[in-house]
Amino acid sequence: MTTKKITSMGKSLNKERTGSQSSCDFTITCGNREFKVHKCVMGLISEYFKKMFTSSQPAANQEKTVLKDIEADSMEMLLDYVYNDESVIKEHNVYEILEVAEFFQIPSVKTDCDQFLQAHISIFNCLRHWMMARKFSLNVSWYHDYVSKHFGTIMTFGEGLKIDFGHFNSLLKMKRQGSSIDRKNSLMSFQIMWRWVKYDIVERKQYFRALFSQVNLKWVFCKIMQKELDDELLSEFPDCAAKLREALELYKPCSSYDLHSVNHIKFLYPNPENKIFDDENFDFKDFTEFNEHSLVVAKDEIIYSIGGRNGGQSKSLFGVRRLNPHRMQLGVCRDLNFGRRNAGCAIYKDSIYVAGGLEHDSFTQSSVEYLSNNESCWKFKQGMDMQREGLSLVAHEDKLYAISGRPRPGVGNLLHLKSHFNRYSTK
After folding, report:
1. pTM, rounded to two decimals
2. pLDDT, tens only, 42-85
3. Residue range(s) defining the domain that contains residue 52
4. How many domains does the chain have?
């Protein structure tokens, strides 16, 4: 017999319990109401009553008990649930049933309530469900995952701004521990933290410094930090304002050719999915013109996709595409002289250099070509002293270095580093 469902026998006992000729041997008093029950039933489903009835204390032989902490309506709901074969759990009473099930130590009722909460969760009630799961030791990890997945939406459109500091702080910690520390999570935490404090600024500004210290400013957009720096809230927290100014100086966008200096782009995938991540909208945008195995380099805040190939084609592509990340506009550029993929690419002397790579499946290039701002086409430089594909090309001081690579596909990697381009030094 299960601890919750007593099926047909339970229904019969329930009818008999509420009838005039009752065989009940115990009475529970809640408020001004009395409930007659069977010790064998209550002891079977509840650890609370089991201990009461099997104790060696004189109270074990009593025929009634008074429960001051339980409402009469709650007790009636629980007994209907225990004796009948029909669930009485509804959205309006599930928390109340959980309270009673916790008090009487009835794990089966708690499990059914847990399953009900999971089946009826949404961004508008998930925080209350999560709080109940923590309070009553339900399947907390399930609610943790749901809240973490929908964190931004919950805090924007749900009830997140109304929760107290303890729960809000737990949510921020949960978000940091449940996923990698990256720009998306840090930016989201920063903006939501600010919004939560200002929702009730008089009461909540006392928590601002503690919450502010948890945000990784490295991944917050400079223009967002600049906006918040002008907020009058910071006038009361000069130490936080100083950290914002320091972060603005340290992480502000620059005109170098490091991808991280481009303010609107986080990840660029040169593969068949061809997706660009737009941090401002927390979404991926598709650019079908980008090619598989293309070279990617950024110069003067423009991102170039060079060469590559289409799908499984053996021949490599000549085409060059350029992306303005600030406008999310993709355009064409001058074509290469040779089709290339798996080549080396670097910025050297304010020009884009491309070296080696596969022209097609069975031929590896040793040639080098470059494109500068004042050139109308890609021009050749003297080639490397051997064929290489899969190499790295690195510019350092006045030299361009070719590192490792393979002479052709299927051959082991080269283990040496050579400066093949000393002759291009302008010293």
Report:
1. 0.50
2. 888 888 888 888 877 665 677 888 888 888 888 888 888 877 75
3. 1-120
4. 2
